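Appendix B. Extra example for self-study. Work through it before the problem class; the solution is given directly after the inputs so you can check yourself.
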Amino acid sequence: MSTLRMMGQVLTHPIDFFQELRDPGRIRWYRAPLLVLLAFAAKMASIMVTGFAFQTREAYEISSLFELVWIVVPWATWCVANWGVSSILDGEGRFGEVVHGSAFALVPYILFAVPVTLLTNWLSLDESGLYEFLMTLVLGWCAWLLLLMVRIVHDFETGKMLFIVLLTLIGMGVIWFIFILLFGFMSQFVYFVLDLIKEIRLRG
Amino acid sequence: MRRRYRFWLVPAVLALMLSSPSGAAAVTPYEGYAWAVNGQDVHSVNGYVYSRSIDGAYLPSGPFKSPESVFIAGSGDIYVVDTGNNRIVQLDAEHRFVRTIGDAEGAGQLNGPKGVFVKEDGTLYVADTKNRRIAVFDREGRFVREYPAPESPLLGRGFNYSPSRLVLDKRDYLYVVSDGNTQGLLQIDPGGAFKGFYGANHVGFSWRRLLIRLLATEEQRSRLATVRPAEFSDVDIDAEGFIYTTTLGEPYNQLKRLSPVGVDTLNGGAKRAYGDRFDVGPYAMAAFMAISVGPDGIMSALDLQTGKVFQYDKLGNFLFAFGGIGEQNGLFVTPADLDQSPRGELYVVDKGRHRVDVFRTTPFADLVHEASRLYVDGRYREAEALWHEVLRQNANYEMAYVAIGKALYNAERYEEAMAYFKLARARGDYSLAFKEYRKAYIREHFDVFFAAVVAGFLLLRFGVPRLWRRIRKGVSRRQAAGIAIGPEKGEAP
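Solution. Structure tokens for the complete assembly:
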């Protein structure tokens, strides 16, 4: 089944889609990175087509690298945290399924972000409510697909699903905290070694 | 022959190269700049240049000593508050000596005066700082009366009266800045009675303070410095009776225009930073020491931190900056006060150099002032031509783009207005112009839009269902054929 048809299926029959994810041979390794890159492309394209009145940042304030990081890092930590939390609490999903499902949850954003943003070229600022409503709708759709993914892939009831999602969010926070901590320690350590070398050189 | 030409050519070219720049450049020790929305300053034409100084050395009264303030009356007479010599020196508009005031022995003798205000009839009100009173002199310089330190339970026990600057409103009420007082301007009626504080600054809400108050013990709290509202440093009044103040120790809204009931009408609830942007260097807060308001509502304010004078139009848009700290003419050692003459010159008191420096406007500044006057009055159409001239002389002057955009908007030329608002990155104004443009566009092309709506309706009502039926028919036919042959490879059943 081609990626395009799967994107169509996740929009029209999301429950079937996530159930069929567990069938053998459905998962291809290249699809998740491809979809994340598509989401990034949609983000950049929507920044580019935003109408002048709706631009909140000047061009020099936008960095494509930062935009990429802001999509990839939260998405990747979500996958890791969700897989980790669910595995501990009797979830049935494997890592590949979580990654795949989370990537396909981005499909509404990939498809509709640019058309909705195009509206800003024909709206004035006092009609921005319409744009914001549609954008919230698209993002809400993505969030709903994520919740559905957690429920079906791991085979949870709704109550446990919400609990797992909460734990996943906390887990994401913990992962970030640890990474920042590690980064701090590492840089301290590197500077310590460099200082040590400098000291020895100056004495010797 | 050729060799001789070459011999003469070299010195001739050298002479040309050396002589031309010195004649062309006007030398100011500071550079003009304007604000741009992208967070940076851009080069601009200087608005004010140094013209001359008054240091009193050639006056019969002798040189000034640490002057603190200057006041220029409507007649053009200049009153220099010669603090170190304990007197006021009155000069006429041509800087000729008229008289000294307050240096004769007796009840009228001044002691370290810091401010003066002259009523239209020539009556002088002097903030006699070290005598802790306001002294009043008539137009001939004779002592008339005094307002001693006000007394009222409102003032509190620790109140220390140290009047430094003052203005008089049309009812002859005095508004006095008392150094170090944080409760506002002191309002004193013509009889000398204290009538309350006016226009006090407020201490805003702060999460940090709330947290400290919740967590700190009684003992810790008593050790913290009490938070006081910021104090005023100068006061001025315009012809309509609005009172302008400068505030010390605040990063925002240091300039205020107070209505007769003491409400700030300049900043309108927004947080606006006046003075330089300090985001490039080490952080330092602007310390505005003085303010002077011109007849068109153009405000000039003096910042002690940078030694610069900043000029704003009536709406608070930045126009010009000049001055700085230094030794050259045009820079200041310790600037203390400024005022504007009826001819539009700015007089800046340099206390550290014991003199008053006079700055004249450049033709560019005259142009901007005139354009800004029309613009602030809402006469956009008349201002438009002037703003175009401003842009011709200085294409970096961003305010001009907004102003021209507004003029075009008023003339219902929305598409051109949008282009100008876009240049000035004025998104709100752009959006308004765009809305009008869109309205006009749809009205003009109504037939097309109407046809599109009808066509869309017909398509949805008849075209799409028919297409749908055809597809379904095709699919079922293919499925029927598929059953006969067997499922296709890779196709979901």
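Self-check: Residues 20-25, 486-493 of chain B have pLDDT under 50 and may be disordered. If your reasoning did not lead you there, revisit section 3.
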